[in-house]
Every structure is written in structure tokens, then in C-alpha cells.
Design a protein that fits this description.
By secondary structure, the chain is α+β, with helices and mostly antiparallel strands. The chain has 10 helices and 5 strands.
Length: about 220
């Protein structure tokens, strides 16, 4: 374990009104991650049907996921991954890799329906400020499945999510709002503080508020 990982694991309390901690399941998957490529050689020799990459090492968190698919049953028969992410990202992706390969492998359509809440539920829980870490593996998996669809001549099944500009003056997109919500900004005031959305372009506020409600319910459940 690197010193950064030890520091991340040691940081198990925050002063946000109450103490929080990593569950035993999170710790289990952090200390002994499942389906993780530990060397570049392992990754180079792996014959994947689809590979997904999200994030950037320059920004901190990055996730890369490889999948093998049974073309007859469309079940994910194997999954491997690597990350530069934190303890929560490691645990979340480890659990995700188990979820999609257990019991003979998950069908692609069902795998595409996995939400971060499903991963967090299997981990028992994650601290709110670390919830966004569960999204890395989820996004990498979707990208890997898209690549599989492209390689297997099923381009009509590829699902891409492009960014839409909401605040035309500051060029703030729906993805910027989504990231802000994932980082704990669940009200318009909190999102505006993070992104400055609507400070100049007042006309975008109703749409921004609607998106905040949508992402809040998507990732954290109904109010």
C-alpha cells in the first residue's frame, strides 16, 4: 500500500456534524481488491472485448476497466481494472467487478442499469463526501460496454452522454452540475457556490434547479 493510500484510509473522520467511518466491507475491498491488475504486464496480456477509461491521472482520479463478454449469452464473464483513485474508488470498483461477474456473469443490459447507489448498498455504505468515488467504476464499465458494442458491430446499442451547456455566459454544463451534486452540493445555493452558475445568466436558474433535483434523486434517492 502506498503512503497516499494509508493516509486516505487513516482519514476516517470528518467534522460535518457527525463522525463517519468506512464499513468492514469497504475495508475488505480496499485492502484486498478483487479483479485488480497489479502490473502493466498483466494488462498488456489480457484479451479484452471492451475497455473503458474515465478521468485523468493529471487531475487525480482515473479508472480503466477491461471486460470479456460471452457473445451468445451477453454475460460479462470476466472483468479487470486499474485506478489512480482513492480508497473509496478502489473499494467501489472492486465491489462492482464482483457484482458483474458473480453467478455466471451479469447480462450487458442489466449491467448498464447499475447505479452508484447499488454499489454503495453492497458496500453497506460510504461517507457522503466519498459517494462520487463510486461513479468512476460505473462510468468506466459503461464505456467498456460501449466499446464492446462498437467492436461487435452493434453501434445502434451504443449510449453516449454528451454535455449540454446550461449557463451560456460561463459555459457551465449539465455535467458540471452533476459533478457538483456528486461532491455533496445538493441545493442550488451550494451548486452555485461551487460553479458560479446563474450569477450572470439568470435565465438558466430554473433548468439548473431541475437538474440538481434530478441528479440528487438519481444518486441519493428521493428526498
Amino acid at each position: 500500500m502506498t503512503s497516499a493510500e494509508k493516509d486516505n484510509y487513516a482519514d476516517v473522520k470528518t467534522k460535518t456534524g457527525k463522525e463517519w467511518f468506512y464499513t468492514d466491507v469497504v475495508k475488505k475491498h480496499f485492502f484486498n481488491p478483487k479483479n485488480l491488475f497489479k502490473t502493466e504486464k498483466e494488462a498488456e496480456n489480457y484479451k479484452a472485448d471492451g475497455v473503458g477509461i474515465v478521468g485523468s491521472p493529471a487531475c487525480g482520479d482515473m479508472m480503466k476497466m477491461w471486460i470479456k463478454v460471452d457473445p451468445k449469452t451477453e454475460r460479462i464473464k470476466d472483468c479487470k481494472w486499474q485506478t489512480f483513485g482513492c480508497a473509496s474508488a478502489i473499494a467501489s470498483t472492486s465491489m462492482l467487478s464482483v457484482m458483474i461477474t458473480e453467478k455466471g456473469g451479469m447480462k450487458l443490459d442489466k449491467a448498464l442499469q447499475i447505479k452508484p447507489q447499488d454499489i454503495v448498498k453492497r458496500l453497506v455504505d460510504l461517507p457522503p463526501r466519498k459517494f462520487h468515488c463510486s461513479v468512476l467504476g460505473d462510468k468506466a464499465l459503461r464505456e467498456a460496454i460501449n466499446v464492446y458494442f462498437e467492436k461487435s458491430g452493434q453501434k445502434d446499442r451504443v449510449v453516449r452522454q454528451g454535455a449540454k451547456i446550461i449557463d451560456k455566459q460561463l459555459k457551465i454544463t449539465d455535467k458540471d452540475i452533476e459533478e457538483a451534486v456528486l461532491e455533496g452540493a445538493t441545493t442550488f445555493e451550494a451548486v452555485q457556490k461551487k460553479t458560479k452558475i446563474g450569477v450572470n445568466d439568470k435565465s438558466c436558474i430554473p433548468e439548473a434547479e431541475q437538474l440538481i433535483r434530478f441528479y440528487r434523486e438519481k444518486y441519493f434517492g428521493p428526498d
